[in-house]
Design goal:
476 residues; alpha+beta; Jelly Rolls; 4 domains; five-stranded mixed sheet; globular
Length: 476
């Protein structure tokens, strides 16, 4: 029924073409990574010809009959039906359908003058002007041997007073080489002995930072992920004499490459009234026998009300899936995150859209499944061997950093994303009003949901009247 209605409106207004219908989808959702000097530089999508030449590959990557029912692209490991998270990367069913319809009718270009402009991708920062810029002391040469590399760099802050931080942003020096990064902070000099033992700049590391004590993770980077600015009076304080350590995962390359990455730190304009807390939930007692899957379940009791800010489920190459949820004293289930197909290469801090209240007396359950069989193509051991917890490549981890705040009334209304003004009728937020917005509105009505800028007649109800007004807006 949904697609039948969709086709009626598509045929009623105009036929599908690249310039009007496909370019907004590709340029907004794909080109940020698929362009020169980015992680997807091998397959750029910056113009009609590049998209046309790779149209069947695009269709394969975005379709739902691959990767155990999930599309390959855009990469977003969490299950969107389990919980709603900030800045989810996905194409709607209608966007996938219209791309496949476009290919089916011969992939016409349309009028090039109607093509959606490629967004302006900033180089220095996606947030603003940083207060502190920390840059690697020297470039690191990544050998083109098609092997993953994990390297840690110590970046001294040399701060003689505490820093009230509102955001931290990693800026990759070579976006084609840098796959992801995680950031921590330690007292000055803590990691110097590790740095001194390695003849090259930085030191080799995997999983963690090779430090004897667990440290808070305060930021990270993955392709397509934007840094989050803590709202209003919320933030994190970096103590006097702090070193920042960043672990960078370099993706396999066929040719030597050079990286000179940096970190931007943003200070709070006003004093921090609510300090971010972090709890790192670990299990170092499990064992993974060879040739079988093992489920590890742990529970965490929450004594007092808290507001969850973000979470990062983390395992290594034996990891298969994650599911994390809270159960209140009244047996209400609060879904937090589910990753059905764990992929070490695509991990990130995940934020709820709004601060997520976990009532005191609740129990958080975390279920991690590990696949230590030969059917796991990522298994580092062939044949499979006994695997134990640890930081090494062949070890495994049950590791969950969580940032949180003591709960205050109204926390559920604090939005963690960037608040932008929207264009009335621009349902898919591509700064255009066209057939895609009608398709998206139909889906919202059928799903009985809402979205910013969708209630065009402002009657607090989303229905056919809004569709009629939107059609008239397009035809005018």
């Amino acid at each position: 029924m949904k697609f039948f209605i969709t086709y009626i409106f598509i045929g009623f207004i105009y036929s599908v073409n690249f310039s009007q219908d496909i370019s907004p989808i590709i340029f907004k959702n794909c080109t940020s990574c698929h362009r020169p000097n980015e992680i997807g530089a091998f397959l750029p999508f910056e113009n009609f010809q590049q998209v046309y030449d790779n149209r069947y590959l695009i269709s394969y990557a975005i379709s739902y009959d691959n990767r155990h029912g999930e599309p390959l692209m855009p990469p977003w490991p969490p299950d969107r039906e389990f919980s709603t998270l900030l800045d989810e990367r996905f194409l709607t069913d209608s966007e996938i359908q219209i791309i496949n319809d476009w290919i089916e009718i011969g992939a016409p270009q349309g009028n090039p003058e109607d093509e959606y402009p490629i967004p302006n991708f900033p180089d220095g920062s996606t947030i603003g002007d940083p207060d502190i810029i920390l840059e690697m002391e020297s470039s690191f040469i990544i050998e083109g041997d098609y092997e993953d590399k994990y390297r840690c760099y110590v970046l001294p802050l040399n701060n003689d007073e505490p820093i009230s931080m509102s955001a931290i942003e990693f800026r990759p020096g070579n976006r084609e080489a840098v796959h992801h990064a995680i950031i921590t902070y330690v007292p000055s000099g803590t990691a110097d002995y590790l740095d001194d033992q390695d003849p090259s700049y930085g030191y080799e590391c995997y999983g963690g930072f090779n430090l004897p004590n667990t440290t808070d993770l305060i930021g990270g980077y993955a392709p397509g992920v934007t840094s989050v600015v803590y709202p209003e009076n919320i933030g994190r304080t970096l103590p006097v004499n702090t070193d920042i350590i960043v672990q960078i995962h370099y993706a396999p390359l066929l040719q030597d490459a050079e990286d000179l990455s940096s970190i931007n730190i943003f200070k709070k304009d006003l004093p921090i009234e609510r300090e971010i807390n972090q709890y790192i939930w670990t299990d170092w007692t499990f064992v993974l026998p060879p040739d079988q899957e093992t489920t590890v379940t742990n529970q965490l009791y929450i004594e007092n009300d808290l507001s969850l800010v973000n979470i990062l489920p983390h395992s290594h190459l034996i990891g298969k899936s994650w599911e994390i949820y809270a159960t209140t004293e009244d047996d209400e289930i609060i879904p937090i995150i589910q990753i059905k197909n764990w992929d070490f290469d695509w991990q990130s801090f995940y934020y709820p859209e709004y601060l997520l209240k976990i009532p005191g007396g609740s129990t958080i359950t975390a279920i991690a499944v590990y696949d230590n069989t030969s059917f796991n193509s990522d298994n580092p051991n062939n044949p499979p061997e006994w695997v134990f917890p640890g930081d090494g490549t062949r070890d495994e981890m049950f590791f969950i950093p969580m940032e949180f705040l003591p709960y205050q009334d109204g926390d559920e209304q604090i939005y963690l994303g960037e608040i932008d003004d929207c264009i009335l009728g621009d349902i898919n937020s591509d700064e255009l009003i066209n057939i895609l917005d009608i398709v998206q509105m139909i889906n919202l009505i059928l799903d009985e949901s809402t979205y910013p800028c969708s209630d065009i007649n402002n009657d607090s109800i989303l229905n056919i009247l809004d569709i009629v007004i939107l059609i008239n807006m397009i035809l005018e």
